[in-house]
C-alpha cells in the first residue's frame, strides 16, 4: 500500500492514526504508520510534556499534531488573548444550560462538580487564540513534521509559519468545496472525511466524498477518513484515488490507549447504528455513541446546544466527571467514535492492528487480481 | 469485474440497474449489465404491458423486477384484497394532511387536482396485497429471472413460490441484522445499501455496511448499493468483498430514461449535500433532493408525515402533478436520488455509461497493481 505520501513523510504504510494518547502515537510509528496527537485538550505546557515524551520514545520516526481552528466560532473576530477570550465566553454561557447539564449528571448519580466557573468552564484549544500557542510548542519538536487542522482551513499566516519551519500542513474537509479552499490556501495534504467518521464530520458518505475530493484537488494528495477500520477499507480508499487512510476509532480500542475499560466495553458492544451526529458536546455536529446526554440535548423542550466553543464549556463538566467517575458516567460520557465501531469487538495491540490491516489489504487486492484474471 | 453472480445470472458485468423505465432495462441488458424494473407504480395490467415490451426488445437477455413489501406498514395484518385495503386506508388519511399537501401545491402555483379521493389517494404496490399480483405477472415472463424486494424480507410463501418457478430472490438491507434475516429466509442475493443511497435507505454508510453484510451472510452473494456511480466505486465495492453493484441514481440521467428535462437539470445541478432522508413522500426515510415539499413536512408545527403507505396517499397528488406540470413542480416534486447525484452532471447514453464504468474499474485496479508492484 505504498503511495507517494509515504515517501514524502518517510513512513512505511500510509496509515495515519489520530489519537489523544502519546503511547499510541509511538506504537503506530514503530509499526510503520504515522501517529497524530490530538492537542485540543492540552494546555501548551501539557502538550510540551507529551511531545517531549514522544520524542524520547519514538526513535527517529516522524509524527504529527492535530489542532482545532474552526472556520466559524463564537468570538473568532476578537483580538483577545486566550485568557481574555475565555473570560468573555464564560459570561456568554446561559445559567439555564449549566443547570441543565448539572441536572443530567445528578439524575445519573454522578457527583456534580462544585468548583468555580473558572475551573469548570474550560475553553481548551477550540479557537485560534488557544490553538496558536499549541502550534508554537509543536514546532519546537523536530520530529513533529505535520500539523493537521480538524475543522477548517488554517489561517494563512499559520500555514506560512508552519511551512517556514519546514513542516507540512494537513486539513480535514467534508466537501469538495472545502477541499478547494484548503488547496488554494496551500494545504499540503487534504483529508476527506465522510459522514461515517467519528468526531466532527459532514453528511456526505465516504464512498461518494472521497473521489470527489480527489478529483477536485489533484494532484494534491488526499487521505481517506470516515469508516476505515480494516485493510479492505484501505484498499477501497486507494481504489478511489486516495493516497492513504486517516483513522481514529480503531485507536480507542488498542492496549496502548488510555481509554477506560468501561468506555472500551461500550465501544465493543456498540453496533454501527448506535452512533449519532450530535451538537451536545462541542457545539458542532460530532459523531459519538448515542447515550442519555446526547438524547437529552435533542429532546424538544430542553435547552438546545450552544455554538462552538460555548457548548464544550457546559459539556466539559461531563467530560471531567467521566475521568473522575468512569464507572458511573458511561450513559452521560463523551464517547466520540465513527460508525466503524460496529467492527470493533476487542482490544488489541497497536502492532497487531497494523499488521492485520496490511494483510487484509494484500488479500483484498489479490482478490481483485484473481477476479480480473478469471475474466480474461 | 466478472464475479460468480455474473455466471449465475448469465450476464457479462455485475452492474445492476434499478429503474422505472423499460427502455433503460433493455439498454442496460444490451450493454452487458442487468436491468431491474421498479414495479411499485404499476398496476398488474400496466406491469404486464411493460414486461411484454421488454420481452420483445431484450433479445435472449435476462432482467429483473423490483417490488416493495415493507416489513412494517399500516394494515399489514389484514387479510383484505388490495381494493378493500385501499378503501380502508383511504379513510385513515387525515383531512388535515390532504389539505396541507394541497396548500403546498397551491402555494407553488401548481393546479390542485379536484378529482375524487379514489382517484387521488392511490395505494400502489406498497403492500403485500398489492405487490403479490405484480409477482404473479412477473413470473409469467421467462426472461424475468430475479425478483428483488426493496424494503424487507419477502414473505416465506412468496420466496417459495418464486423459487418453485425457477427464479431467484434478492432483497435490500441496511444492516447486518436485516441481512441475516434475509439469508435465513432463503434469499439468494443480498443487496447491502448504505445511507448514501437514493430512495429508502438506512443510516450506516456504505464503506462500513458492505463488509459487515458480506461477513454476516457469507457465502451468500452480496451486491453493493448506495453511492455507486463510477467504475472506481465498483472496484471499492469488490475490494470490500461484494460481488457487484446495485445502482439507481445514474439511470435517471441516461437518454433512455423517461425523466423530464426539468428533473434531469435539477439532478445535474445538485451537489452531494443537496439530498435529504425524508419521510415526506412514502412515510419511511427515503433519500431525495431537498426541496420545498421535503422542507414543509419537517418544519415544526406543520403536520408530520404519516406512516407507509398512508403518506404516499397524500404525496401521490404531488407526484401526479409532477407528471402533468413538470415545469411548475420541480420545487415540490418527488426527486429520489442518492448522494452520488453530485457526480452526475450530464445525460448520457446507457451504453456509454456502462463502457465508462468498465474502463474506470480497469484503471482503478491497475492503479492498485502498480502501487503494489512499486512497493516490492
Account of the 3D structure:
The structure is a homodimer of 376-residue chains. Chain A is an alpha/beta fold and 376 residues long. Chain A has two domains: 4-73 and 126-257, TIM Barrel (Alpha-Beta Barrel), CATH 3.20.20.70; 82-123 and 268-324, no CATH class. In chain A, 44% of the residues lie in helices and 13% in strands. Chain A has 15 helices and eleven strands. An eight-stranded parallel β-barrel of chain A has the order 1-2-3-4-5-6-8-9, surrounded by six helices. The first copy, chain A, has a three-stranded antiparallel β-sheet with strand order 7-11-10, with no helix packed on it. In chain A, helix 9 (176-185) links the parallel strand 5 (168-173) and strand 6. In chain A, helix 5 (95-107) runs parallel beside helix 14 (310-324). The first copy, chain A, is globular and about 70 Å long. Chain A starts with a helix and ends with a helix. The mean pLDDT of chain A is 94. Chains A and B meet through helix 10, helix 11 and helix 15 of A and helix 10, helix 11 and helix 15 of B.
Strand order of the largest sheet of chain A: 1-2-3-4-5-6-8-9
Radius of gyration of chain A, taken over Cα atoms and rounded to an integer in Å: 20 Å
Distance between the termini of chain A: 25 Å
Counting DSSP E segments of at least 2 residues, the number of strands of chain A comes to 11
List the helices and strands of chain A in order: HEHEHEHHHHEHEHEEHEHEHEEHHH
- The CATH superfamily label of the largest domain in chain A reads Aldolase class I
Query: Which two chains touch over the largest interface?
Result: A-B, 51 and 51 residues
CATH class of the largest domain in chain A: Alpha Beta
Strand proportion of chain A:
5-15%
CATH topology of the largest domain in chain A: TIM Barrel
Structural category of chain A is: alpha/beta
Please describe the biggest sheet of chain A, giving its number of strands, its sense, and whether it closes into a barrel: 8 strands, parallel, barrel
Domain unit count of chain A: 2
Amino acid at each position: 500500500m505504498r503511495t507517494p505520501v509515504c515517501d514524502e513523510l518517510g513512513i512505511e504504510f500510509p496509515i495515519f492514526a489520530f489519537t489523544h494518547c502519546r503511547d499510541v502515537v509511538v506504537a503506530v510509528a514503530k509499526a510503520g504508520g504515522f501517529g497524530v496527537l490530538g492537542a485540543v485538550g492540552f494546555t501548551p505546557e501539557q502538550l510540551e510534556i507529551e511531545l517531549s515524551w514522544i520524542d524520547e520514545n519514538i526513535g527517529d520516526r516522524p509524527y504529527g499534531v492535530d489542532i482545532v481552528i474552526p472556520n466559524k466560532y463564537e468570538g473568532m473576530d476578537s483580538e483577545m488573548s486566550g485568557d481574555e477570550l475565555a473570560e468573555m465566553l464564560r459570561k456568554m454561557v446561559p445559567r439555564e444550560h449549566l443547570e441543565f447539564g448539572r441536572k443530567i449528571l445528578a439524575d445519573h448519580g454522578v457527583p456534580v462538580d462544585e468548583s468555580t466557573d473558572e475551573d469548570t468552564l474550560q475553553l481548551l484549544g477550540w479557537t485560534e487564540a488557544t490553538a496558536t500557542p499549541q502550534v508554537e510548542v509543536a514546532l519546537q519538536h523536530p520530529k513533529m513534521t505535520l500539523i493537521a487542522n480538524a475543522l477548517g482551513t488554517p489561517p494563512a499566516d499559520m500555514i506560512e509559519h508552519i511551512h517556514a519551519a519546514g513542516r507540512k500542513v494537513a486539513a480535514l474537509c467534508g466537501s469538495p468545496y472545502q477541499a478547494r479552499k484548503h488547496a488554494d490556501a496551500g494545504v499540503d495534504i487534504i483529508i476527506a472525511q465522510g459522514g461515517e467518521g467519528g468526531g466532527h464530520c459532514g453528511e456526505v458518505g465516504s464512498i461518494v466524498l472521497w473521489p470527489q475530493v480527489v478529483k477536485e484537488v489533484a494532484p494534491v494528495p488526499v487521505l481517506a477518513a470516515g469508516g476505515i477500520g480494516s485493510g479492505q477499507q484501505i484498499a477501497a480508499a486507494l481504489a478511489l484515488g486516495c493516497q492513504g487512510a486517516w483513522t481514529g476509532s480503531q485507536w480507542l480500542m488498542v492496549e496502548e490507549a488510555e481509554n477506560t475499560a468501561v468506555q472500551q466495553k461500550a465501544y465493543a458492544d456498540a453496533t454501527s447504528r448506535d452512533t449519532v451526529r450530535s451538537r451536545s458536546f462541542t457545539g458542532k455536529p460530532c459523531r459519538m455513541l448515542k447515550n442519555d446526554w446526547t438524547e437529552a440535548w435533542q429532546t424538544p423542550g430542553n435547552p438546545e446546544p450552544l455554538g462552538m466553543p460555548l457548548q464544550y464549556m457546559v459539556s466539559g463538566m461531563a467530560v471531567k466527571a467521566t475521568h473522575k467517575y468512569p464507572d458511573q458516567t458511561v450513559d452521560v460520557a463523551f464517547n466520540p467514535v465513527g460508525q466503524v465501531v460496529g467492527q470493533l469487538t476487542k482490544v488489541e495491540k497497536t502492532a497487531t492492528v497494523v499488521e492485520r490491516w496490511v494483510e487484509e489489504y494484500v488479500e483484498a487486492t489479490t482478490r481483485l487480481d484473481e477476479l480480473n484474471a478469471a475474466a480474461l
